[in-house]
């Protein structure tokens, strides 16, 4: 497995070793010992799968005060996935990193606790899977505006299909400080 660093410390792309031939392929999608060696020492307590059509953008989502770390990947199709550092006091506050995740490249994207997360679908459909380090907390559920100019994400879609929640999400500068995670070096 290869770990590819992003512009955000702690946010990484993971490329598993894929073994394939004319019959198909095999790869380890998670190996606790290898992830620990790579510095990802988390316990996953919830697993989710979503399927979305081309043009759907989900995010930017986060939970506070019970944050979730997310290990995400694509089983079918292709998405552009994004993490945004929203930890108050972080030297990379408001910055983002993105990765192409496809069924063909088998990549995983690790988004630690304290980051907002979103993705947009570029294929006809995409089946997206994510392992979470904390259970979903409806009371702590929050989101940021997908096209916040202060964050400046270079999304590969200009008019995405959004949920009502994501359409109404606030800009990062409008979120009260107590509703954001705190950076802990």
From TrEMBL:
EC number: 5.1.3.13
Statement: the UniProt record of this protein carries the keyword Transit peptide: no
Protein's GO biological process: dTDP-rhamnose biosynthetic process; polysaccharide biosynthetic process
Top EC class for this record: isomerase
Gene3D superfamilies, A to Z: Jelly Rolls
Site note Participates in a stacking interaction with the thymidine ring of dTDP-4-oxo-6-deoxyglucose, residues: 136
Pfam families cross-referenced by the UniProt entry: dTDP_sugar_isom
Annotated pathway: Carbohydrate biosynthesis; dTDP-L-rhamnose biosynthesis
Quaternary organization: Homodimer.
Protein name in the entry: dTDP-4-dehydrorhamnose 3,5-epimerase
């Amino acid at each position: 497995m290869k770990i590819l660093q992003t512009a955000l410390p702690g946010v990484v792309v993971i490329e598993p070793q894929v073994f394939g031939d004319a019959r198909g392929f095999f790869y380890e999608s998670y190996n606790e010992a290898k992830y620990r060696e790579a510095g990802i020492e988390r316990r996953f307590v919830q697993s989710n799968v979503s399927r979305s059509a081309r043009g759907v953008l989900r995010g930017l989502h986060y939970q506070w005060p019970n944050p979730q770390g997310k290990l995400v990947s694509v089983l079918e199709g292709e998405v552009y996935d994004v993490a945004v550092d929203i930890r108050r006091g972080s030297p990379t506050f408001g910055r983002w990193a993105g990765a192409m995740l496809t069924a063909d490249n088998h990549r995983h994207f690790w988004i630690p606790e304290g980051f907002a997360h979103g993705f947009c679908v570029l294929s006809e459909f995409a089946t997206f899977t994510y392992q979470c380090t904390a259970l979903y907390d409806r009371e702590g559920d929050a989101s940021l505006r997908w096209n916040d100019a202060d964050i400046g994400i270079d999304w590969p879609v200009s008019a995405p299909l959004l949920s009502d929640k994501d359409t109404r999400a606030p800009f990062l500068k409008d979120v009260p400080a107590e509703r954001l995670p705190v950076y802990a070096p």
